[in-house]
Specification:
It holds the Pfam family LytR_C. InterPro entries: LytR/CpsA/Psr_C. This protein is an alpha/beta fold. It has four helices and nine strands; from the N terminus they run H-E-E-E-H-E-E-H-E-E-E-E-H. The protein has a five-stranded mixed sheet, with helices on one face. The N and C termini lie far apart (77 Å).
């Protein structure tokens, strides 16, 4: 029995130590992993016969080495009427102009595409109704309308009579700023 205790005690202690190390590493990994990003808000489908640039929300990313390119194009598109919701750089290196959107957003893609020279269109599975524009190192420029056969478009017919627009952020109620209690609270006995 004494030999059993001499062998069992270190084995049990090593097992408990291994369990403690495993628990600590699992806890540390759970503590330091990034929080999940919120799921995107789906676009709002509205009935409309025509889709114009004021219905299109774009995000513009500079994927090349020309500084300020995304900001210049954002100003240009804002002047036309597009809703520019984000301007940023991307770590992804892009050649030319790439437009990314959901393949169901044919009207939005057609409008955005008409404002650039020889853009490439790529599709993804986004549901938020935005269109991403990536401007790269071989950016050929903007369509200024000098070619009458290929003018920039202001509106197109809405596919199926419906358009997908990015929802406006809903306001949240703000707390009352008055320091006095409500009149009903003073009346209660």
């Amino acid at each position: 029995m004494r030999i059993f205790r001499l062998i069992a005690t270190p084995v049990i202690l090593l097992g408990l130590l291994a369990l403690l190390i495993w628990g600590a590493s699992w806890g540390w990994k759970a503590l330091t992993e990034p929080l999940p990003s919120p799921s995107p808000t789906p676009c709002v489908v509205e009935e409309a016969e025509l889709l114009n640039v004021t219905h299109v929300s774009v995000r513009i990313f500079n994927g090349g080495f020309t500084s300020g390119l995304a900001n210049r194009e954002a100003r240009r598109l804002t002047e036309v009427g597009f809703k520019v919701i984000r301007v940023d750089n991307t770590d992804e290196r892009i050649r030319g102009t790439v437009i990314r959107a959901n393949e169901n957003q044919t009207g939005q893609i057609r409008l955005v595409k008409s404002y650039f020279l020889e853009p490439t269109v790529e599709y993804d599975d986004r549901i938020d109704g935005t269109v991403d524009i990536y401007l790269g190192t071989d950016f050929l420029g903007a369509n200024d309308g000098s070619d009458p056969a290929n003018p920039p478009l202001f509106q197109v017919s809405a596919p199926d009579g419906q358009i997908c627009v990015v929802p406006e952020p809903s306001p949240s109620p703000s707390p009352s700023l008055s320091g006095s209690p409500s009149p009903t609270a003073a009346e209660t006995p």
